[in-house]
What does this fold into?
Amino acid sequence: MGIENYIGQARDQFIRKSLMSDEFLDFMKENMLPIDTLMANYHCAIMEIETKFNVLNKQFSLQYDRNPIESIKVRVKSMESILKKVRRKNIPLTLESIEQNIRDIAGVRVVCSFQDDIYLLADCLLNQDDITLIEIKDYIKNPKPGGYRSLHLIVEVPIFLQSEKKQMKVEVQLRTIAMDFWASLEHKLRYKKNIPPEEASLLAKELIECAEISSSLDMRMEKIRNRITKAALTTAKQQ
It folds into this structure.
């Protein structure tokens, strides 16, 4: 049996055992409506955060004639991904435990033009009085060993339901175009199969080097932007 077939069968067995276990079936039977409600709440939380960033982008466009945001991507984890994380973290299989212990069920990824836009937008978001910062991880100033760069925020945002206000956790990732490009390709390459160990080690080093090049490009483009801005201001003053 090839390693790829073995991995595929192992994955299928894991999913079957996980999704068809008595524990999980009982959990789904008892909590189907609450699960749907919880997932809907996470979708609402994503809409709140996405709207905040769209408003900020519009404001910067009107006041400063520039758009710091290139794109916004959103996602809510699938039940399969949530279940795998429940087992990996060894937490109770209850909605309360899931909500308390898994902080990245709702995710918003903001792709920015320049690195300083990342910190500017993060500050603008965190200064809003209905946003509560739970955790911050700066993988830009402190990249992961493999080269990954991004600013991660776990925040709480209120959603307003028919008869209550509920605080929901959302993971916000802010990165530049270059960081997003690198992370996307690295994610695809990481799951390629049948790569010899020596070649995998060389590729890991190559990816780290590419991450450094991407970071250097970000800094260089930011300096060019700053020079253009300075030159435009100088010309405007002289007129």
In short: The beta strands are 69-76, 106-112, 132-138, 151-160, 165-176. The helical segments are 3-20, 22-64, 79-89, 95-101, 115-126, 177-190, 197-238.
